[in-house]
Amino acid sequence: MNRFKQASLITVAALLITVSACDQPELTLDEVGRAKQGSYPIRTEHLKSDGTPLFTNRLIRESSPYLLQHAHNPVNWWAWSDEAFKAAKELDKPILLSIGYSTCHWCHVMERESFENMEIANYINEHFIAIKVDREEHPDIDETYLTAVQMLSGKVGWPLTVGLTPEADAFFGGTYFAPEQFLVLLEKITQTWGNDRPAINEQAGRLKKSLAKLSQAANTVKSIDTDAIDRAEQAIAQTLFAPPRHNQPGFPREPEMLFLMHRAILNNDTSLLNSLTQRLLTLSEGGIHDQVGGGFHRYSVDAEWQIPHFEKMLYNQAQLGHLYALASQYTNDPRLITLSKSTLQFVLDELANSEKTGFYSAMDAESGGTEGGYYLWSYQELSTQLSTTELKLAEVVFGVTKQGNFNGANVLRFKPDVASTELQQTKALLSKLAAIRSQRTAPKTDTKIITAWNAMTVSALVAGYRSHNITNYLDRATAVAEQIWASAYSDQDGLFRTITADSYKIPAALDDYAYAANAFIDLYDTSKQSFWLDRAEAIIKRMTLEFHDSNTGAFLISNKTNGKGLSVALITARDDALYSGNSMAAQSLVKLFNRTGDIEYRDLARGLLAHFSTKIISSPESTSGLWLAASSLNVGETGSVLYSARSKVRVESSQNNDQLNINISIAPGWHINANEVLSEFLIPTSLNTLKGSCATIQSVTYPKYHTVELGFQAEPLQVYEQTTNLTATLANNDHYESCAASAFELRIQACSDEVCLSPEIVPIRTAPH
């Protein structure tokens, strides 16, 4: 958002506050529209002779770019509010709920065809209370009615179209409707509402009961042990790597890949790592990857990722940036290194706000009213803009043809089997194409700064820093996290969903809390600054207060202390394009337990996993985030920083060619036994190679121990205290070049002056290359 737009919104907010404070009449809709003029695009075709909008509805008072897109429809839209439901009850009208987001192509299509259509708009205004919801602002409302429509029709997507009673109970649902079909549907609903209300109430009642069942306490609890985790991994991998069906859309499916990447590293599974890296490379070669400007589109209309739906979402860039960072770290593949850096750089260059303290949510699928117009290349345009040699190169490297592959134009796709000489010329060609494309009308950017998605991006940038040692990644991650803490959280109000320039605040959803805590933990691990851990704990404690359901042990998706009028308090853990709130809550709770030793966090994680145990065992592919939490809890985390002995021991590891370095930090008042002990009953510190490791330990240099006398032991002890370092000389194994990870186990026993904890094994996994 440029400074003019920010100033406009701030001015409007200040004006509204001033008017309210003076008890003067509220600004009319037209007055609000004039005050906001220039701060949002006007999309309507209904204009006065002076070019100003003919219609202005209540959405003009909102800040959401999506709602403002509809502020000048002839439909008398309401935002989701108590007032809208009160009006429905007083007027005895059904509610037409439309849920979408600002960069959604089919949302734009339905707006142009139906919500700008005077006949349809007049019918809606006469017979319905029409409510618009930005799914990115209210993911809990979206998830509730998405689940309801899934139960009704089995088909979901956006725009989501739902019929509600004035009590907010769904009785009908669908997605996009063509205008003729939509008007017939509205007429049927009106007829049934007037002539057969009991049928609608019966349908709504049945659906409400079905939704409520999802949130009931589990009847049975199944064991989530290491065998169950292994079986889940196999099932998720089998589904992910199965041959695609050609009539299905192609989604990246980052949540499953993140879980499997964790397992590949943890188990030193070279085969699984190779399958993941090949999938990531294939993904980058398709049209779903913007070959010219970087970044990834949300999904493709085909299973092979060739022809995308063209919106670019922050959460896709964050998750894929994270995956490419991990893959490049553990393979040292130059292609993956380039993709990791280019994806993160796209976020920093194209989605950052001017202050560099937040990231915008998305870029539109349309530009100039045409789907994908910014990204498409006609053969005629290329033949006039490029030299003969360059055009031939575009044909060979990017599959350009005269007939094109999308509405007569070309979506560029990278062909990996081209000669090395042609690859060397590709960089100059891409630079020229980027210069040509910069003259086009760029897609609109949704300038919402969403807490959960920004926190997710913080974690991705931290992963990028760990992989590439680029300090700018860590600096930018820190700045965004600081902004989340300063502007989106307060002790009084808790966390907010969006970070805005004005006073418009939306209470956070469950995923905002869970992702924010996870990001703060990542920064704590990397910076060693304890205030990040303190902030993560504050976030999780507030999340538990406002979302935890003691009857089930899981978390509600909507805040129980300031309900939004939803008739059902829903509990779900279905991972879709990103991990669900419950999945991320479980992961953050496990991490907090490992870093604080507070068993309350462990018990909350166990209770959450127990509630969903039957579901995740029966449907592992849709709950990979909970399986990641279970693996971290029962087997161990992965990463260069790990915790042991109820958080009293911090272990940081790195591999530099043939040397393994391990730094052990021990809490004050605690020690671990040295590598040599004076009693057979004590467990010495030891470092060993695991089977299948990329490198084998040849020798270990242990530090000099301290001799201490403790109250519970008559004889002196040889121990390590405070900070100590181990180094090991390594020899590469035969399969080193194709190996996933160097795998070692550090065995320690931690004691204080009063108690010795059970011996523990810390799983050390380092990138071998």
UniProtKB/TrEMBL annotation:
Any Gene Ontology biological process: carbohydrate metabolic process
Coiled-coil boundaries: none
Organism of provenance: Arenicella xantha
Protein's name according to its UniProt entry: DUF255 domain-containing protein
UniProt key word Signal: yes
Keywords, comma-separated and alphabetical: Signal
Source organism, top-level taxon: Bacteria
UniProt KW Ubl conjugation keyword: no
Signal peptide segment: 1-23
Annotated Thiol:disulfide interchange protein DsbD N-terminal domain residues: 646-760
Spermatogenesis-associated protein 20-like TRX domain sequence ranges: 56-211
InterPro entries membership: 6-hairpin_glycosidase_sf, DsbDN, DsbDN_sf, Ssp411, Ssp411-like_TRX, Thioredoxin-like_sf
Gene3D superfamilies, A to Z: 1.50.10.20, Glutaredoxin, Thiol:disulfide interchange protein DsbD, N-terminal domain
